[in-house]
Every structure is written in structure tokens, then in C-alpha cells.
Fold this sequence. Notes:
Blueprint: H1 12-16, E1 24-30, E2 39-45, H2 63-76, E3 78-84, H3 86-92, H4 94-107, E4 115-119, E5 130-133, H5 141-164, H6 170-173, H7 179-188, H8 199-205
Parallel strand pairs: 1-4, 4-5
Antiparallel strand pairs: 1-2, 2-3
Helix pairs in contact: 2-5, 3-4
Amino acid sequence: MPxxxxxxxxxxxxxxxxxPRLAVCGVDEAGRGxxxxxVVAAAVILDAACIPPGLNDSKKLDAARRESLFAALEASAxxxxxxxxxAEIDRLNILQATMLAMRRAxxxxxxxxxxxxxDGNRLPALPCPxxxxxxxxxxxxxxxxxxxxxKTVRDRTMCELxxxxxxxxxxxxxxxxxxxxxxxxxxxxxxxxxxxxxxPIRKMLSPAA
Length: 209
């Protein structure tokens, strides 16, 4: 039998959290796994009367669709963006840097949220109550919106880094550990945009280790 299509994200978690009486934001990140670049988080408070159609887990959307939806979100939702730098990732570790980026994203919201829906199984320390939702970007519209915002902003950042550090192909692989990225590292060595705490980069810098 053919597999049933995955259900689309909906607004039930937001309603359970008190929307519209309370401002409820969705929070997600992009860039935990790459070898280079910052980790970026977004927090989004949707207007239930003006939700762009087609919101979904950013991984299920192509770049053009994400850009279109992000533009629609900028016109209709409250968005906060936060990031943790490569230096912070290397100093704190990627999990703690992700939590830091999420806190910064929520703090950047023009409207303080009364409740936050967080993608994943861990909660950052926030000034409001929060709920962790595993695969939240595929279940909650607000978290899906945050996943689109975080991914779009990070992809733009990686394209900017590609101009600063040419030759690595950041504009194509966005810092992820592709074969082309590995070959560029062997040819050029790590750049300041690379995460030295990540094993492939650390081994290049300290082969004996």
C-alpha cells in the first residue's frame, strides 16, 4: 500500500498554549550540523488571521519556496532572529550555542511572548513558559514558520561567507560536510568560518590528535 502523506502542521499547539489571548511563538534553529558558519535561530509569532499558506518544515521546501514564504512572514508575523557565532560554538559546544541562539531569537521579538513552542526535546532558558515538541517544525505552524525563517537567514549568511572566503562552496553546501566541502578543505585548509571544535576540522588542525 502507498504510504499516507505526512499531515501538515496546524495551529493546535498554539491554541492549547493560549492563543489568541496570549502571544505564542514558535522557535527553531538551522545549522547545528554544518562544519562552518553560525547556528541561527528564529522565533515567530503568527497572526492566526493571516497565516501564509504552505508553511511546513523547511527541509521539505526548496530554496525558492522558503524565500517566498519568508517574505510573506515578514509582512504578516512578528519575527525575531538570533545566532551564535563560530567562536561561541567552539567555546560552548553546539548544543549550548543553539540554546543561546534560541534565547537571542526570543529576546529579539518586538512582542514579548507569553509562551514558546520549541522544536526538539530540550528547552532553552527563557523568560516565559515553554514546551518542547519533537519534530515540531512538521507539527506546529509557528515552529514551521520559525524553521523557514532560520533556514533562510542562515543560507543568506552562508552566501555572504562564500564571498568572504571563496573556494569552499559555502553558497552551495551551506557549510555542511559534503564531499566537495571536504575536498576544498584539503586544498585550502580551514577558514575562520570553520568550527574548529568539530571533528573533521579539529583533525586537520591537529593530525596527531
